[in-house]
């Protein structure tokens, strides 16, 4: 009976760990990185930003994705939400697969978050632990409680290109009911 209980608990824990998708992780990281701002610039070196867009993508991550997958992403693609999500997914999928082969274990949410912050071996760096804690705080903050409502908010911006295309995206705002 004790063994059956332990197996049931182990299954429940592993099922819970697997239920968080890369998309779920990216949704939280959009808030962690830029407060959901697709035009965000960050991590300045002098007057030059080194992180771009809603997921604060760095040039080196774009170069990695292009090298591995033969894509042609550029820094300006980091300002496009769907491109930023694709870059994030490709980057974290590639390095997560490498981690699984190297370590002989399944990747966790913490691994993905720490890779995003610290690079291919970020999951091993003690300097990325604070970032994972920040991720968990944001995740807790945006998760719905029974007394919160979810409201869709639509934002629009222009690309700044000569054709001045108007782009839009939806996000969800969580509001505490009184």
Number of helices: 6
Strand arrangement within the widest β-sheet reads: 1-2
Shape verdict: globular
Arithmetic mean pLDDT: 80
Measured between the Cα atoms of the first and last residue, the distance is: 46 Å
Q: How many structural domains are formed by the residues?
A: 2
- SSE pattern: HHEEHHHHEE
| Uncertain residue segments | 1-18, 174-178
Beta strand count = 4
Q: Which value, in Å, is the CA radius of gyration?
A: 18 Å
**Helical fraction:** 40-55%
Per CATH, the architecture of the largest domain is: Orthogonal Bundle
Q: What share of the residues does DSSP label as strand, in percent?
A: 15-25%
Biggest sheet details: 2 strands, antiparallel
Q: What do we call the CATH topology of the largest domain? A: Lysozyme
What brief labels describe this structure?
178 residues; alpha+beta; Lysozyme; two-stranded antiparallel ribbon; two-stranded antiparallel sheet; 6 helices; 4 strands
Question: How do the strands and helices of this protein lay out in sequence?
Answer:
Layout: H1 2-18, H2 22-34, E1 41-45, E2 48-52, H3 59-69, H4 81-103, H5 109-118, H6 129-142, E3 148-158, E4 166-176
Antiparallel strand pairs: 1-2, 3-4
Helix pairs in contact: 2-6, 3-4, 4-5, 5-6
Describe the 3D structure.
- The chain is of the alpha+beta class.
- It has 2 domains: 22-143, Lysozyme, CATH 1.10.530.10; 146-178, no CATH class.
- The chain has 6 helices and 4 strands; from the N terminus they run H-H-E-E-H-H-H-H-E-E.
- It has helices at 2-18, 22-34, 59-69, 81-103, 109-118, 129-142; strands at 41-45, 48-52, 148-158, 166-176.
- The strands form 2 sheets. The chain has a two-stranded antiparallel ribbon with strand order 1-2.
- Strand 3 (148-158) and strand 4 (166-176) form a beta hairpin.
- The longest helix has 23 residues, at 81-103.
- Residues 1-18 and 174-178 have low confidence and may be disordered.
């Amino acid at each position: 009976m004790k063994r059956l209980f332990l197996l049931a608990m182990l299954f429940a824990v592993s099922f819970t760990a697997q239920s968080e998708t890369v998309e779920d992780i990216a949704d939280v990281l959009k808030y962690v990185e830029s407060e959901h701002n697709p035009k965000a610039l960050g991590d300045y070196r002098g007057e030059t930003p080194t992180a771009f867009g809603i997921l604060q993508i760095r040039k080196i991550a774009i170069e990695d994705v292009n090298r591995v997958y033969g894509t042609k992403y550029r820094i300006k693609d980091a300002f496009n939400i769907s491109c930023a999500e694709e870059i994030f997914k490709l980057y974290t999928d590639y390095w997560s697969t490498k981690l699984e082969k190297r370590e002989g274990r399944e990747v966790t949410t913490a691994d993905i978050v720490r890779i995003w912050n610290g690079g291919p071996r970020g999951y091993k760096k003690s300097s990325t632990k604070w970032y994972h804690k920040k991720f968990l705080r944001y995740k807790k903050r945006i998760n719905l409680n029974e007394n919160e409502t979810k409201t869709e908010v639509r934002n629009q911006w222009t690309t700044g290109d000569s054709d001045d295309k108007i782009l839009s995206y939806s996000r969800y705002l969580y509001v505490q009911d009184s």
